Amino acid sequence: MKLTAKQRLFADEYIKSGNATQSYIKAGYSVKSEKVAGVNATRMLGNARVKSYIDTKMAEIESHKIADAKEVLEFYTRVLRKEETEEVVVATKTDAFTIEKKPSFKDRVAVAKELMKRYPISDPIVQAQLKKLTADTRISEARAKNLEDNGADVEDLVSGLISAIGKEDKHESS
After folding, report:
1. Among the listed ranges 35-44, 51-60, 156-165, which one has the minimum average pLDDT value?
2. Which InterPro entries match (predicted)?
3. Residues 6 or more apart from 118 whose CB is under 8 A from it?
4. Band of residue 171 on the pLDDT scale cut at 50, 70, 90
5. How far apart (Å, rounded) are the C-alpha atoms in residues 52 and 1?
6. For residue 83, which phi and psi values (nearest 5 degrees)?
7. 3-state secondary structure of 131
8. Which fold would CATH assign to domain 5-65?
């Protein structure tokens, strides 16, 4: 059930270009006319072994395009450890340039949560640390929002936020 060298070359060319006639010609088959090459190429695509080879190769190509769970978890871990960067455009009055930016605290907390969903633990110390990280993130977000709003009292916002977090903790404990 193996392909000849020309059949394999035809199939590989067809996978690259999607053009059966040109693939047939490039594979080195003798061609009297392009019309004859097209008919023979269509016949070649109907060959069970050639079709199976093409389908298998296409499946391999597609599987490499889609990230698997391990790849996603490794990416999350790199973000958590600040090993990933992203390009950010910074504009000035006269120019714009890009800089490499490490993940923010908020991004790191988000990927930590995603990782923890996959590796749940019941250790109360770790859960308390995760809650503290979440609370710190919320406080930082409230302070940033206040700076953007230019007027709201930071202490009132933070106190309200801490109170809301305390209520959530009591609700989760019940």
Report:
1. 156-165
2. SPP1-like_terminase, Terminase_Gp1_N_sf, Terminase_ssu
3. 73
4. low
5. 10
6. -90, -15
7. helix
8. Arc Repressor Mutant, subunit A (1.10.10)
